[in-house]
Amino acid sequence: MNVAVSADASDLAATVERARALLDDGDVFDAKMLASAAYEQAKLAGKLAERMRAGERLVAKARRLQGDALLIETRAKIRIAAEWDAAQDAGEAATRGRPKNVPDENVFTAEEAGLTRKEIHEARKLAAAEEREPGIVERAIAARIEAGLAPNRANLRAAVGTHSASKEERGNNLYETPVEAMRTLLALERFGPRVLEPSCGRGAIARPLEDAGYTVLLSDLVDYSTATRDGECQFVRDFIELEPIGGCPDIVTNPPYGAVLNAYVAHALRVHRPRKMALLLNLNFLCGFEDPERNFAMDDNPPARVWVFKRRLPMMHRDGWDGPEASSRMNTAWFIWERQPDGSYGDRTFITRVDWKAFETNPALGPDTARLPDGEIVWVRGDEGFAAEIDGRVIGSVDLRGDHWAWTIYGHPLEGKAQKEGAARMALAHAWLRLKAGAA
Fold first, then answer.
1. Judgement on whether residues 103 and 209 belong to the same structural domain of the protein
2. pLDDT in tens, 237-295
3. Is residue 284 part of a domain?
4. pLDDT for 98
C-alpha cells in the first residue's frame, strides 16, 4: 500500500506543478480548475494514507501538496474575482439584475466566469485580507502544515478572517475584541513577560500584546490555526479542562459569554491562580448572587480593579459577520485580578470609569519585569507599594509611603532615600543578589 500511495503522490505533485505553471502563464481559469482537482485528490490521498497507516512521511507529503494546491486555487480565485469586478465596472458582467443598458449577448454570468457568486464574495474577502497583510494566505497554510494538520478551505477562511460562522461556531462565541479595548488595557496595566490567551480566536488580543513586547501562549476551544509571530501555533483545548501551565503566566482574554462564563472565570482563579488576570466582561458581571462560581470569582476572590468603559466599545460582531455594522448595546469593562503577597486576591475592588477614546494614541506600558541571572523578577503592585516575585515566590516588598523607600527581603529590612520607582526596583534587585551572595 505504501508503494501505491507514493505513486499517487508523485502523480499529484505533477498535477500541482502543472496548475502552478498555468497560473504563472496567466491562464487563471484552467489553473483554478486543475488546482481544485489537485486539492481534492491530495485531501483524499492524505486521508487514505492516514487510514492505511502509510507513515508520517507520506501523510506529511500529501498535506504539503494539499496546501500547495489550496494556495494556487486561492490565488486563481482572487485574480478571477478581480477580473469579474473589473468586468462589472465596465458593464460586461451581470450584476444582481441584468443591467438594462447592456445587450444580453455582451454580458456574461458568474457561472460562466467559473465561480459562483459565493466564491466571488469569498475571493474578494481573501483579496482584502492579502492587501491588509501581504502573504497571510500562504502563512496560514504553512502554519497549519507545521502544526501537523491538513490545510483546508474552511480553516483558511477562518485563519485569515473571511469565515462566515456556522451555527456550531456561533455557539463557540467567537466575537473578536476591538483594538480600542486593548489600547486602553495596555496603557493602564502591566503584566508579566509571558501571557496566556486561552480564548485566542484569530489573535485580536494576542497581536497587541506581542506589539507591546509580551510573549503570548495561544489556546482556544476551536482550531483557528492562529500563530504567534515566532510561528508557534495555538493549541486546541477547552480552557475549563486546561491544567496550569509551567511558569504560571498571567492571563489576558475576552472569555466566551453565556452559560460557560462563570465556570470559566472560577477555573482560572481556582486552578491556574495567575499572578494577574485581565478579562473583558459585560459590566453585569459585577452583579448576581445565585451562581456559586460567580460568587467565588467576585466575593471570595474579588478583582483588584474594574476599568469601566463609560463610552461603549465598538460593536463586537460575530466572527465572519458580513452584514451592516451596528453600534454596541453592551456596557463592558476590564476586570483585573491581582494576587497579593499573601497569596490571596485581596478583599476590595476599585471601580474607575475610562473613555477608550482617551487612549487611542497612548503607548503600551510593556512587560513589568526585570531580568536577573538566576530568574525573573515580577513586580506586583498594591495600595501601599509593590512586592517582588520570582517564579511565583515573593522575595521582597517595597513600601511607597512617606519620603523613604522601605525594603524587606526575606524579612531583612533595608531603607533608602525616596527616588524614582524604576531606581527603587533596581535597588531591590541588587539587594536581592547581594543577599543571595551573603553580602547583605
1. no
2. 899 988 888 777 999 999 988 788 999 999 999 999 999 999 999 999 999 888 999 99
3. yes
4. 38
Q: Give the residue from 173, 126, 154 showing the smallest Cα distance to 316.
A: 173
Angle formed by the axes of helices 117-132 and 56-89, nearest 10°: 100
**174 and 159 in a common domain:** no
CB 210 within 8 A of CB 200: no
Please give the distance of CA 87 from its chain centroid, rounded to a whole number: 38
pLDDT band at 225 (very low <50, low <70, confident <90, very high): confident
> Which of 300, 327, 359 is the endpoint of a domain?
359
Q: Which of 131, 163, 195 is the last residue of a domain?
A: 163
Cβ-based neighbours of 156, under 8 Å, separated by 6 or more: 70, 74, 137, 140, 141, 144
In a domain, 364, yes or no: no
Q: What is the mean pLDDT of residues 369-379?
A: 48
Angle at 118 between CA 117 and CA 124, to 5 degrees: 90
Confirm if 317 and 174 have CB atoms less than 8 A apart. no
The sign of the torsion formed by the CA atoms of 160, 164, 168, 169 equals positive
Distance of CA 393 to the CA centre of its chain: 29
Please state the pTM of the whole predicted model: 0.49
| Domain of 158, in residue numbers | 2-163
Do 17 and 54 belong to one domain? yes
* Same domain as 325, residue 208: yes
Residues 179 and 254 in one domain: yes
323 plus 415 within the same structural domain:
no
- Region for 58 from its dihedrals, namely left if φ exceeds 0, alpha if ψ lies in -120 to 50, beta otherwise: alpha
pLDDT tens figures, 178-198: 999 999 999 999 998 899 999
- Site of grid cell 517595597: 398
Within 10 angstroms of residue 423's Cβ, the number of other Cβ atoms is: 12
- Average of per-residue pLDDT values in the chain: 76
Cell digits of residue 316? 463586537
Nearest to 233 by CA among 224, 242, 241: 224
The span from the CA of 138 to the CA of 123, in Å, is 15
